[in-house]
Amino acid sequence: MAKEKQIFEIPEYLSVRDLAELIGASPIDVMKLLISNGIMASINQQIDYDTAAIVVEEMGYEARPVTPVVKEVEQAELPKWRHFYDNQSPESLKPRPPVVTILGHVDHGKTSLLDVIRQSHVQENEAGGITQHIGAYQVEHNGRKITFLDTPGHEAFTAMRARGAQGADIAVLVVAADDGVMPTTKEALAHVQAAHVPVVVALNKIDRPNANPERVKRQLADIGLVPDEWGGNVLVVPVSAKEKIGLEDLLEAILLVADETEIVADPTAPAAGTVLEGRLDRSRGPVATLLVQNGTLKQGDIVVAGTSYGRIRAMFDEYGEPVKQAEPSKPVTVTGLSEAPEPGDTFTVVAKEKEARAIVAERKQKAEAAARRGPQTLSLDEIFAQFQAGDVKELNLIVKVDVAGSLEPIVNSLEDLNVSDIGVRILHAEVGNITESDIMLAIASGAIVLGFNVRVDPAAQALAESNGIDIRTYDVIYKMIEDVELALKGMLEPVYEDVVIGTAEVRAVFKVPRSGKVAGCYIREGEARRNAQARVKRKGQVIYENGTVSSLRRFDEDVREVRAGFECGVGLSGFDAFQEGDVIEFTVRQRVN
Ligand code: GDP
């Protein structure tokens, strides 16, 4: 008895990466198969069911359309909240309060600053004025609002980024004026810079007798944060959380930076944003703090957050007061979800509960499939594949070395490697072992971790393995440089050429309902392929090019290819003015270097 083919359910549209994931193949193999069928698709490109089915079948499986599911709301899948409003008309975008995260070395006063800002800026009209820790709070300064995320530290920030969310617009880097720039200060800076988030420095503890602001400013300049009074572009604000000094200046500085950055949203759109916290409350069931990043969230809205969904029963602000709606940048706790979502999950409002259920079911299915397959690797090879697909123009690196003396030569040699227009971007270079924090940064930024004469912390190793992050350690500098150079060379933009795979002679022209005219052809040489590129020649002159074979039929059947010596019907996208005697040339793009 013949072995039954494995059947895969394919949605109407999916990306090349998702297709590869679904069928357990490497994205490169899928791209190769597509190329051999005349389809140039990048790893993130959406392909339709028919195209995906070709791949599935060529891999020896059977394709079937998915039992129809409502299409996922676009925003939910997008990595950065900027994209929440990328597709919106500029007129509908309005300024919104900046969302601020606080980072810095341990004990430099992050928590104290958050607390003192919270206490001294509670709005007077709020009941009792006691804020609750819900993951974020808003304060007012000169009539303008600022949202603070109240989980300090870059770990939370980067964990969120690794899940595809970008929570903050501005980072406050806290540096104690007595202690100065410390290793974690640099690390935190690397994390926010990798995320392209602007930085304001809070020079804390200036009340301390041994505070030395000038020394710290020099240290800041050394790590690239040149204070504005020295002609740089970083606002450095002296503060004391203990003595409540400089808090207004800090808020002012945040608003100044906000004014230079485009911090906007469309308050009229269906709400979307990020989950800050999720927990199970004994009496209220699942409770989540949501940061609205676009649109206005309203009581009664149907929300999908990660793999939970539900109709919002009640909403509360940071004072525990019930609210009916939440505008962009406002954090609210909500009840009514089916389960507690994870911090960093994105949420969106959908029109119908049925739609929400379908999206969640699809996500759960995807998550299970991904868990079965294990981690997707982010190795040099994988980056190379993304590169070939034109998705990556930069190789992000994190470099850890044993002694300060080897840091500079390694960083310089790596930075010198830039080949053509492909760059090396060093997100973080530091003396020390490879830690969990390095791996988090790598996950969030799609980076490779390079180590020179250093060890990998066991926790970092485990995190890297479970997330498929490539850690490469070396004991010879030139070997490290050589590897990166090879990756870069591989990453060079490939050159493609159109190669003719077949020619056909038009012998008749038919009108087909709904799709215009189709050419009845005789294949003279090679073959015709569906989805191949095509050009049309008349009396030796090209009269149409860069078309695609949109339909290919033999008798009444859609076929994938027709070989020389056979007749078939050919439809092209974008051209149907065929005449008898025209010649159609079918081409595919092939890589020539
Ligand atoms: P975090 O680890 O960065 O969150 O730092 P904390 O906010 O927990 O502060 C660490 C220590 O520094 C605590 O003992 C605080 O009381 C103290 N501290 C924080 N800010 C100041 C300040 O402005 N002046 C002084 N003298 N001490 C401060």
Task: Tag the structure with descriptive keywords.
six-stranded mixed beta sheet, alpha+beta, binds guanosine-5'-diphosphate, 593 residues
Kindly summarize this structure in a few lines.
The protein is α+β, with helices and mostly antiparallel strands. It is built from 14 helices and 33 strands.
What are the SSEs and their pairings?
Blueprint: E1 7-10, E2 13-15, H1 16-23, H2 27-36, E3 46-48, H3 49-58, E4 62-65, E5 94-95, E6 99-104, H4 110-120, E7 136-141, E8 144-149, H5 154-162, E9 170-176, H6 183-194, E10 199-204, H7 213-222, E11 236-238, H8 247-260, E12 264-265, E13 272-281, E14 285-294, E15 297-298, E16 302-305, E17 308-311, E18 314-316, E19 325-326, E20 331-335, E21 346-350, H9 353-373, H10 380-388, E22 394-401, H11 404-416, E23 423-431, H12 436-445, E24 447-452, H13 458-467, E25 471-474, H14 477-490, E26 496-512, E27 516-529, E28 533-538, E29 541-554, E30 557-558, E31 561-563, E32 567-573, E33 583-591
Parallel strand pairs: 1-4, 6-8, 6-9, 9-10, 10-11, 22-23, 22-24, 24-25
Antiparallel strand pairs: 2-3, 5-12, 7-8, 13-14, 13-21, 14-20, 15-19, 16-17, 16-21, 18-20, 26-27, 26-33, 27-31, 27-32, 28-29, 28-33, 29-30, 29-32
The structure holds guanosine-5'-diphosphate.
Guanosine-5'-diphosphate (GDP) is lined by residues 104, 106-112, 152, 204-205, 207-208, 240-242.
